[in-house]
Structure formats: structure tokens, C-alpha cells
Amino acid sequence: MTALGDVRRRRIDELAARAGQVPEGEGGVSLTRSAVRRLRRDPVAIAGAVIVVVFLLVAALAPLLAPRDPVTQYLLSEIRPGSIPGPREGFPLGVDNLGRDLLSRLVYGSRQSLLIGFVSTVLGVVVGMALGVLAGGLGGWVDTVVMRFVDILLSIPGLLMAITVSVLLGQNQYALMIAIAVVQVPVFARLLRGSMLAQRGSDYALAARALGVRRGRIVFGHVLPNSLSPVIVQATLSLATAIIEAAALSFLGLGDPDISRPEWGAMLASAQDFLSIRPALAIWPAVCIIVVALGFTLLGERLREALDPKFRR
Fold this sequence. Notes:
Largest sheet: none
Shape: elongated
Structural class: mainly alpha
CATH class: Mainly Alpha
Number of helices: 13
Order of helices and strands: HHHHHHHHHHHHH
Strand content: under 5%
């Protein structure tokens, strides 16, 4: 009986593995390996990856790359109601209205913006996947209850929900991360649930149920691993959205109140009173937000195409 059980388990594992393979034109190569090959030959994916890596390196090496301390005030004697010093020797981008070096604040601001984006996305993925596994794995009344809760969250505009959560939790960095994560939870929950429902009807899942394999082993051993591709793609795209939402909340005054931690959205908010004097104070943070969001979007879109069977050639 043990030998027969081992044979059955191996057969189910083979069917599950086959569900994650590229059947045509790739010689049975795994879907992940095939996607990596496509991404390495895709100039758009490479451009997105380069942008992301550059900003990650800037954030990681901020103390080494920043020419000056981001909170120290300089050139105070030259700051007047109608004049803010621009680029000059030692200050490539000039200073802000309080005399702080703009380039150094942009470099350090990448740390905060990327940190908030990554942490909030991870929180959204974890909680969303937990709800998705409950709904897609158990089904029945559990699926109904979880999905109705998800529908309620989806019915509320994302920015409005983020503002509400941020106000309720208080003005701090952790509240900002949680607020953005709450917006992303229903997206990942519904996405994983739909992917798992599709996988539950696959040959390997049907064979496992016919052989009496326990539901837990089917769900966590086979269905869930083969349902993660769309979640990974959405997580990459959600990073761009999270960074933009973090900047929006900071612009509205709901971000981190600690001025010792520069953040691009907060820099935009403080620059709006000086647009007629030094528009560069708003332009440079906006450019950083746009470029890093573009990098994650390009990479996420190409990753989606690389993992989607409809785009295989």
C-alpha cells in the first residue's frame, strides 16, 4: 500500500508540475525559466529593471551618495521672501526654502518612498493571500463570507479608504504603510481566489481528489504554488501604485511628520508655496516619483506578458 501511495503521489506531482510548464515551443521548460528567458531578451523589461535597480541602489547607498546632510540648513543668509538660491558649486540642485540641500533630500527621500512602498505592498500581499487562500481553498460559505467582505472593501474608492485609515490611526509612518496596505488587500485576495478556483479544476487536482488526497495537501502542495504567478505580477505593479499613494497622502499632510526623514510627497507639499519662485523644488520630487513608478510598471507589465500563456510565441 505504501508503494502504491508513493506512485500515486508522484503521478499527482507530475501533473501539478506539468501545469506550470510551457507545453509548446519550449521543450517542457518550466514557466518560470521560460519567463526569465523572455525578460532577458525584452528591452522594455530591461529598462524597467535598470530603473528599479538604480533607485534601490540610491536608497541603499544614500549616506554615501548624498553630498550633504539632508536636514542641515545652508545659505540662510541668501534666502529671502522672493528668492531661494538655485544650483551652484557644492549645491548641484540648490537648496529648499529652509536652506536644506535639495539633492541630498531627494537621495534620502528615495529611502522613505521605497520603504513605504515595499512594506505596504508586502502587508497587502500577505493579508490578501490569506483571505484568497481561505476563499479559494475552502470554498462554500467561507468563500461567500470572505468575498462579500472583499466586495465591500472594493466598493470604497482606494484613496478615500487610505485617507480614512490614515486619519484613524494617526499621522505617522506606520499608519501610512497600513493605510496603503488596506487598499491593496482586496485586490490580492480576489486575484488569488480566482487563480486558485481555476487551478482546482485542473487535471492534477481532480486526480488528487479521486485518489483521496487530503484537501490541505492539494491546496497548499499543488494548487497554491501554481496560482502565484498573477499575484507576483500584481505585486510588482502595486509597488508603483503604493509609491504614488504614499506621495499623495504625504502631500495631503497625512505622511510622516518627522522632518528628519525626507519623503518625496512631503517635499512636493512643502514646495507648493514656492512654485513661482523655485518651481524646481516641486519638479525634481515629481520626476523621481514618476520615474520610479514607471520602472515598476514597465517591469510588471512585461512580467505579466512573460507569465501569461496568451503571450507565448
